[in-house]
């Protein structure tokens, strides 16, 4: 879909007051069906997870640089670490928003699919469509579980980062930095676990997208 048309449709969705059913209806009129929207939203969610991986890694690197501070501008190092923490929070919020959008269109797609199956008069075709719906729903549920599992690992990490940043803010000196070094290994481990979990979710996304695009 070209960018001008996409922009126009997004604007239409906003004018409709954010009503998703109206938005889906408007998109369908120009040949952009719920299945297409779902694939695009899974791609968006996957990309947001990839961006979050990079951002959490960057935040970890800046915190490590701050903890290994060797006499330069301490406040500048703190501000860089703080900025990366805030960017990680924004990235986490984006991941959650994108997953929510996947769930919204999935619910609409499956409801529509189930309803249309009831309109198929031939029993053999109705049975095949029902089986395909069941298979797609099972694949989707596996995907969304993987996404939510990765998502759930972000809040504890962000809380730990926030605690450390606030602690440092109140008394920014070498002694204070030394006091939180013991927690850094745990934070490293948690972020490593997050990245691994996101990689699993990204792999699930790729499998789901391939299956939806191939029609299998």
From TrEMBL:
The keyword Coiled coil applies. It holds the Pfam family DUF2959. It comes from the Bacteria. Keywords: Coiled coil. Residues 35-153 form a coiled coil. This is DUF2959 domain-containing protein. It comes from Shewanella indica. The lineage of its organism: Bacteria, Pseudomonadati, Pseudomonadota, Gammaproteobacteria, Alteromonadales.
């Amino acid at each position: 879909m070209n960018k001008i048309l996409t922009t126009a449709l997004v604007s239409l969705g906003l004018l409709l007051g954010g009503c998703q059913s109206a938005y889906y209806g408007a998109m369908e009129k120009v040949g952009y069906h719920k299945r297409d929207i779902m694939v695009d939203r899974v791609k968006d969610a996957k990309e947001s997870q990839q961006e979050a991986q990079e951002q959490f890694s960057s935040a970890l690197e800046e915190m490590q640089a701050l903890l290994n501070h060797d006499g330069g501008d301490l406040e500048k190092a703190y501000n860089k670490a703080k900025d990366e923490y805030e960017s990680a929070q924004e990235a986490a919020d984006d991941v959650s928003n994108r997953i929510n959008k996947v769930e919204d269109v999935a619910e609409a797609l499956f409801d529509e699919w189930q309803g249309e199956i009831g309109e198929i008069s031939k029993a053999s075709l109705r049975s095949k469509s029902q089986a395909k719906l069941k298979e797609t729903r099972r694949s989707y549920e596996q995907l969304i579980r993987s996404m939510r599992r990765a998502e759930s690992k972000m809040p504890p990490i962000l809380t730990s980062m926030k605690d450390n940043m606030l602690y440092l803010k109140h008394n920014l000196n070498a002694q204070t930095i030394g006091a939180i070094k013991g927690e850094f290994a745990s934070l490293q481990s948690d972020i490593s676990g997050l990245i691994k979990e996101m990689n699993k979710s990204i792999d699930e996304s790729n499998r789901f997208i391939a299956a939806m695009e191939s029609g299998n």
